[in-house]
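Running log. JK asked me to keep both predictions on one page so they can be read side by side. First protein, sequence followed by its tokens:
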Amino acid sequence: MPKRRMKLKKGLRLAVVLLLALGAGSWWYFGRPDGQDARHLQLYGNVDIREIDLVFNNSEHIDELLVQEGDRVLKGQLLATLHRERIQAEVAAAEARVAARKAALARLETGSRPEEVRQARANVAAARARLSDAQVTYDRIRVLLKDQVVPQQTVDDAKANLNTTRADLDVAQEALALAVQGPRLEDIEEARALLKAEEAQLQLAREVLKDTELFAPVAGIIRNRILEPGDMVSPQKPVLTLAMINPVWVRSYAPEGYLGKLVPGMLADVSTDSYPDKTYPGWIGYVSPTAEFTPKNVETPELRTRLVYQVRVYVCNPQDELRLGMPATVTIPLDQPKPQPGHTVPDCATAVMD
């Protein structure tokens, strides 16, 4: 019995030592999140892309659609056009109004023509001559009235004619003064303001005409052709869906233990099962400030209850090999220098791993 007890105690001691050793090893390996290598962090996720719903900033019927689904397009490429006859007529009318306002302003700024001034001087001279004649006539009739040769009514008529010709002279002299001085400054400023208003209307009409053409804002692939020629469009109704192909990004999730080691701008490698021998240079573009549960469609039931932080890793895709939803593996070297505040964000021309 003593020997059996001795063996039992030794067996218990050995089991305790083994359990302690196993616990220490497990703590060393599993104490770090996901049992990762301390020099690298490996994350898993899916490729995501940004899409743009392209709309016309106008309301009109579609005239032409120049692209099909799956077409690669360049930035600034013409994709579709609207019927433009009505808008072209509006532009022509606005151009005519601007031309009329310019002519009116030029007339005021030029002032009176020499011929107009000479005409005004001639009118003054003619008014003076008529006044002189009326004065002589009135004086003669007054003499005849004393001799009772003419009635009083004749004298009154001659006096009225004298006053009228004197007023005509005043009018002619004022007209001459206006012709010499030219238009008022207020009239010129009003004409300038009216010209600016018409020019603004013309610019607006031309912008509306430009809005009959739809251009690609960035390079990408036409993913969806929503409307067809003849359909009525509006600024609230998308015509095409454009998928941006470069850069794309991988939506992955990092455990809390690594949150302090991940900084936007850090470089990363991305690989996929479709191209196992190829890696794509990328960089961390976003680390979520809030935790969330691991997405239920990518992890086991045990991991679904763990809180993780979303990490977006942007990756260059010049050959269009990374597609929407493709599973991807992200490897982030943790021993690389952390980008400092105010650093230049990497792009596809600079994101090259050392």
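And the second, directly underneath as requested:
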Amino acid sequence: MNKTAIVMGATGLIGRHLVDELIASPRFSKVVALTRKPLSITSEKFENHIVDFEHLEDYSELLSADALFSCLGTTKKNVGSIAAQRRVDVDYQYNAAKLGRLQGIDEYYLVSSSGANAKSVSAYLKMKGELEDKVIALDFKRCVIFRPSLLMGEREDKRPGEFFAGKVMPLLSCIPVLRKYRPIKGIEVATKMAQVASTSPKNTSNTKIEYYTLDEVFIAG
């Protein structure tokens, strides 16, 4: 199919794998990554544009596509404060979604988190929930939200929570009732996102919103 996909967060744990998955997908003839630093990917289907996320409106013409995949995310440790983290985790992603919708994008795919809730006492889960609410209000024709458990994979920055997940959670998840909470690799989330984007909406009702939560995010097998 002659479809174009845009990936936000293409240098991250999920986004980098997602670019590869979308390039391999027969549904998309072009995959565009909007990043702060260049990606070394050789493919006739791939385009990389370096942008300033603080002034994303200056690049609005680049947000013209069929589908937008949003995988941006950071930590308080990396950026120094909750306010700075919110700038990346909420503002950048919402601005991209809003600009993309104005450019005619109909499909939106978001990596959120299990437990996301705008009313949560957790600053992180509150941010994720607020972003979900904001992008849903943009009224995409198809809005798909992925809520995986704790993410694992190779990052430039080492995160204490992932050390715990790698050592302890695999043991706890041997208990059947806890299996759906087991840690998930970034490549698994990316694969699931590409699979879902190549299939019809899972809902049979008129709702435009789809959620993939916890064990639903794990790829088959």
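Observation for JK regarding the second prediction: The chain has a mean pLDDT of 87.
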